[in-house]
Amino acid sequence: MKKLFLSLLISCAPFYLQAQEITGFSPEAAKEQIALEKQFDALLAPANLDAWMKKMTEQPHWVGTPFGEENAKWMKKQFESWGYDARIETYQVLFPYPKVRLLELTEPEPFTASLTAVPVEGDPYTAQGDALLPSYNAFSTDGDVEAELVFVNYGIPSDYEELEKLGIDVKGKIVIAKYYGSWRGIKPKLAAEKGAIGCLIYSDPKDDGYYQGAVYPEGAFKNATGVQRGSVMDMPLYPGDVLTPGYAATKDAKRLERENAPTITKIPVLPISYADAEPLLKALKGPVAPADWRGALPITYRIGPGPAKVRLKLEFEWKLQPAHNVIATLKGSEYPDQWILRGNHHDAWVHGAADPVSGMVALMEEARAAGALARKGQRPKRTLVYCAWDAEEPGLIGSTEWVEDHMGELQQKAVAYINTDGNGRGFLGAGGSHSLQTMVSEVAMAVPDPQTGVPIQQRLQARHRAYGGDGEFELYALGSGSDYTPFIQHAGIASLNLGFGGENAGGEYHTIYDTYSHFKRFKDPDMSYGIALAKTAGRITLRLANAEWLPLDFVPWQKTVSGYLDEIVETTTSMRKTTEKHNELVRSKAYELAADPKKNLTAPGMKSAVPYLDFSPLQNALATLEGEAESFSKKDFSTLPKSKREALNELLMKTEQQLTSPEGLPRRSWYKHQIYAPGFYTGYGVKTLPGVREAIEQRDWEEAQSEIEKLAGTLESMAKHLKAINALN
Ligand SMILES: [Zn+2]
Q1: CA distances for 563 relative to 352, 559, 560, 677, 714, angstroms
Q2: Is the pLDDT of residue 183 over 80?
Q3: Measured distance CA(235)–CA(103) in Å, rounded
Q4: Mean predicted confidence (pLDDT) in 492-503
Q5: How far, in Å, is the centroid of ligand 1 from the Cα of 359?
Q6: How far is ligand 1, taken at its centre, from the CA of residue 399, in Å?
Q7: Residue 322 confidence (pLDDT) above 90
């Protein structure tokens, strides 16, 4: 009730009333900043976004293509014309091009998959023939395998548990999994761990085809021949160039032998369309798939194995390709050695109008406007670094190599990194470091939604409330899937990921149909959400650049981290209960007695009992942090003398680094951050407090306890750091 009342008030109040107080600014400075933002907004022009998108998506531009290089050079010139110092930093990275792709059904009757999406009427970009990158999964290994087929639903851990219950083993088989349910790279990784020798991934029409809506070109969804490309590199181990883990892929860098690169898949894997998948799935016999595994093809979904037998042959041309990052700098007037970094990738799988160009053109328009303000004498106080990354699609390669190359300097100078990627019509999505939550929330109250006119935050909250949520504005935690990963998870730089969406659904992602024509019909036809993104990310960038004291707030941070711990404690308790119940059912043979004797089911075995872990070191550290966070939030920094304020900012810049540990996470030391990481078995999906949480999920109790101690050490060093900050005032 209280919240409803509050938001009614908000909806009646004009914007400027909302924006008077901004964290990091004294009242006088806040007035100036708001006036500056007004000028910034007035400079933004949707026609620029439209023209630049059309230009950058004329031809396919994956890493290593001439058109990709042309785009990089053109962007560099654009940045220079807006007053930036721009350069192209190039790395030599391993990139596989598909030379041979063969998929055949050999039994019970022959069928050869076409592996080619058809051009459609009204979209000339889809008719570029051989210039289009053939559909494949980058960093699949080479291979030529033939075996019986098994349908494994999404191919995630719970699906293999289900198969085990049904007594079905994938050892020596080729699995076929649906897209979705996890990041795609998890599917071949798990399949290989389970002994499969090949993996197919297909797009079921239920997920992004005709079940969802009319298909392209009539509607936005995937037609029968569309194929989602994508990387299957083992990014949860480390992202970036597979041959140079943890260091930059410069021309003369020492490289691993390809055979020894741990992030290339162990088995061949190929993505296919539903036109190519249907004959394969139709030829399967064996048990009918569980109800929630079934898709929308007009067949009875069965699991196999066989009698369908398939042959999969893949050969790649493995070559070093130049990845061209464009780095454009606008030197700060007061603190040139404090950098606000703002990035988006420029490479695409094919044309990439939505992914990534819709975000790239918004970033460029921001940079143009910030440059124009600087020319009029309103140069930002801190340095702006605009980055256009190459080779994001095959595995966050351009950004990762750049961060690895500049690690020392970044940890000294970077204040924050703000990432965007694809963008479309709908609601604000904002994830990132929770110390930035208050600042992002203030910005989201200052930017109007293009369709309704209310602040973008208010629209987002309305949606949460309408669907039963409490409507509180919160950043989501960052897993992986775009270029923020090396910044936050490797270098410990406070990061954000921003974008609009939710009213732009379609099936074009990573297909030949992600074109200018498709975007203009279904994504953000008038580029108004591109402008909203420029306003949002631009404000965040400019506030970070001009703040008198960096706008961090540790109260929401502490609250969020405490919430993660509560979740883990609850999970452990409920695991203990379900384990006890499970073991009781095994002992009393209940599973065996309940099963259909004709179905040849395998009864599950006993599980290790869940011990009582000692979470108190974490609870104590979080209690100390609560006190420090609260006293920080009550301080008035506007009266602090300049020298002390500078010391304060130097410390604030380094807070996110307190959350990293030099030895990193167990078995994946590249990931240094102790609060956020992509899940080892979820891929893009985040695991918060990953060391502790994943040890518990994997039932490794000894490691769980030692990760608790390690995380407590990290939180204690954060508390000490905040204490030093608080002592300044
Ligand atoms: Zn992208």
Answers
A1: 38, 6, 5, 16, 17
A2: yes
A3: 26
A4: 97
A5: 9
A6: 12
A7: yes
Give, as one character, the DSSP assignment of residue 560: H
Name the band, by pLDDT with cuts 50, 70 and 90, for residue 17: very low
Residue 18 Cα to ligand 1 middle (Å): 33
Q: Residue ranges of the alpha helices (H) in 302-394?
A: 359-375
Distance 510 CA to ligand 1 centre (A): 9
C-alpha of residue 658 to centroid of ligand 1, in Å: 29
Cα–Cα distance, 124 to 127 (Å, whole number): 5
From the list 453, 454, 449, 471, the residue with the least C-alpha distance to 462 is 471
Q: What is the pLDDT of residues 127-156, one digit of tens each?
A: 999 999 999 999 999 999 999 999 999 999
Count Cβ atoms below 10 Å from residue 266 Cβ, excluding itself.
Answer: 18
CB distance 44 to 369 below 8 Å = yes
Question: How far is residue 188's CA from residue 469's CA, in Å, rounded to a whole number?
Answer: 36
Question: Cα(430) to centroid of ligand 1, in Å?
Answer: 16
At residue 592, what is the residue type?
A: E
Q: How far apart are CA 318 and CA 659, in angstroms?
A: 37
Question: Which helix (H) or strand (E) covers residue 338, if one does?
Answer: strand 335-345
**3-class SS letters over 37-56:** HHHHHHHCCHHHHHHHHHHH
Give residue-wise pLDDT tens across range 266-304: 999 999 999 999 999 999 999 999 999 999 999 999 999
- 590, 596, 598, 600: CA torsion to nearest 10: -50
Regarding pTM above 0.90, the answer is yes
Q: How far is the CA of 73 from the centre of ligand 1 (A)?
A: 20
**In terms of Cα–Cα distance, which of 101, 671, 662, 49 is closest to 369?**
49
Q: Distance between CA atoms of 235 and 263, rounded to whole angstroms?
A: 7
**Inter-CA distances, 342 with 216, 388, 435, 538, 545, Å:** 34, 9, 18, 9, 11
**H runs (alpha helix) in 471-512:** 484-485
Tell me how many degrees the CA angle 285-290-293 measures, rounded to the nearest 5. Answer: 95
> SS3 of 487, please?
helix
How does residue 235 score in pLDDT terms, banded at 50, 70 and 90? very high
